[in-house]
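Q: What structure does this chain adopt?
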Amino acid sequence: MRTMLVTGGAGFIGTNFVRLTLRTRPAVAVTVLDALTYAGSRDNLAEVQDRLEFVHGDITDAALVDELVGRCDVVVHFAAESHNDNSLRDPSPFVQTNLVGTFTILEAVRRRGVRLHHISTDEVYGDLALDDPAKFTPSTPYNPSSPYSSTKAGSDLLVRAWVRSFGVAATLSNCSNNYGPYQHIEKFIPRQITNVLSGIRPKLYGAGENVRDWIHVDDHNAAVWAVIERGRIGETYLIGADGERNNLEVARGILEHFGLGEERIEFVTDRAGHDRRYAIDPTKLRDELGWAPRYTDFRSGLAATIEWYLDHQGWWRPQKDVTEAAYAARGQ
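A:
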């Protein structure tokens, strides 16, 4: 492997993947394709920009995608619209990016004979009851509940169909909730961290009982590399780190880091169709590919993330007022 195209490489997970790749595999030449929507920024890659090629463009641009795919050995497809609340207000960008964009990538790798790894989410499986001991596995039926998760489910099915129908050399991964550096402050963990740093009360939907299976972004991206290098073509691998926590526990952990109590938490009206619980069974990934997470203690990963936002206030403060104003307009 000599050359790699990373779609969405200026977004949260993509940025961290590009940085990991440049750090651990310096012989790989990286091209980033990103539309630079509100959730992506070239500033995320400023420190490494001289070590990669950046292309500002859309994954639905078939001619551009074909040209870029034609000069790489592997495509890692992160690009996606990914915020549930936004998908409930306007599903159309999710259909365009997640479905039409993935179709465009698939047609390009099919024509060019290029290896593809497709990044997806555990939200395609729907949710689990809070008292259900089960976890998602690669054989769990899809049951998406939002425009976001349904378009990601559709993109997964497109990849599988192109593998079977056209022999595209692709793998898939569905990950649990990532957290870590460079995550947009509209997302749950960075929103609560930056609220505390801004003197704003942390906000929780409903009673804060909804459970997510958290994984540090560096652990997720190390697993992606394990799939790229050792995964079986056509297979799906679930990426998780046994990090189940409900939202109230996470908010408490953030407040405790600052020596504050949970009485500061503000509970707001729950969002429509809010999934109750996600939980990943990563057995296949660990047994087949020998991957294991570095952040086995959620508290240590959360502490490292809090310190990053504390040290990089110049990165997130320009976004804060606009983000909170948008939430306030919805009573959240």
